[in-house]
Amino acid sequence: MTMKLFIQSVLALAIAATGVSAVAQESVIRENMAKRIPQLKAIDEVTKTAIPGVFEIRVNGSEIYYTDAQANYLIQGSLIDTRQRRNLTEERVDKLTAVKFESLPLKDAFTIVRGNGQRKLAVFEDPNCGYCKRFERDLQKVDNVTIHMFLYPILGAESTEKSKAIWCAKDRAAAWQDWMVRDQQVPPAAAMCDTSALARNVELGRTYKITGTPTLIFTNGSRVPGAIDAKQVEKLLTESKG
Predict the structure, then answer these.
(1) What is the pLDDT of residues 74-115, one digit of tens each?
(2) What class, spelled out in words, does domain 101-240 have in CATH?
(3) CB within 8 Å of 236: residues ≥ 6 apart
(4) What are the pLDDT digits (tens) for 25-45?
(5) DSSP assignment, residue 218?
(6) 214: burial class by Cβ within 10 Å (0-12, 13-18, 19+)?
(7) What b/e readout covers 167-200, taking b as 16+ CB neighbours within 10 angstroms?
(8) Residue 83: is it exposed, middle or buried by C-beta count within 10 angstroms (0-12/13-18/19+)?
(9) Does residue 56 carry a pLDDT above 60?
(10) Domain residue limits, the chain
(11) Alpha helices in the chain (DSSP H)
(12) Is the domain covering 3-96 a CATH 3.10.450.70 domain?
């Protein structure tokens, strides 16, 4: 065997051993976590972090925890890169929860267009959400935007009934604005109206783990939970175009 072939064989064995070691390590973490913390039995993924001996555990799609190689300790919280001043946990969750804007079922939303409508934004809102009303009133200041409004009734039966009435209105956008911005009454629901879109919206929100309203989704896939002001919306609309 030549020296070159010998070196290649040694390197191949080292790489294979590393792979086996990594698999074994992941197996230990999964096994010990399942025994000690049953809630973490169904782990989606185990990966190494930049910190030697510390591993990331991902569960329920986008929940992030950290542990050691033996799963003797569990860390819940943010991992911060102090040199670059970056919240690595937040960045990871943002990536995991990013939504492909083009994949959103826009047929299950109604549209509000302001100005030239060139910028785009999708919003999930519950008509009984006080924060949503505050957000909607401030959103009136944002121009040249197309808003795809997904009715997302998650706050109870009354939310569902109001959402049905708005969805079945002759002019959905006007009915929504009347209720959310101008404090007028929700119109009575039309006699014959297919409201199955509302159930699909709730299911879609569960898939994307949208747990509160309002939730904003921008064209670059980023999302913002909570009521932000018009200046922040403007900033994010500009960033999403880049």
Answers:
(1) 999 999 999 999 999 988 988 888 888 999 999 999 999 999
(2) alpha beta
(3) 216, 218, 222, 224, 228
(4) 889 999 999 999 988 888 999
(5) E
(6) buried
(7) bbbeebeebbbbbbeeeeebbebeeeeebebbee
(8) exposed
(9) yes
(10) 3-96, 101-240
(11) 3-36, 88-96, 130-139, 157-167, 172-180, 196-207, 230-240
(12) yes
Q: Are 142 and 112 in contact (CB under 8 A)?
A: no
Burial 43-80 (b: 16+ CB within 10 A, else e): beebeeeeeeeebbbbbeebebbbbebebeeeeeeebe
Q: Considering all CA atoms of the chain, what is the largest pairwise distance in Å, rounded to the nearest integer?
A: 87
169-216: pLDDT as tens digits: 989 999 999 999 987 777 766 567 899 999 999 999 988 889 899 999
Closest Cα partner for 151 from 169, 141, 143?
Answer: 169
- What is the per-residue pLDDT for 5? 58
Burial of residue 103 (CB within 10 Å: 0-12, 13-18, 19+) is exposed
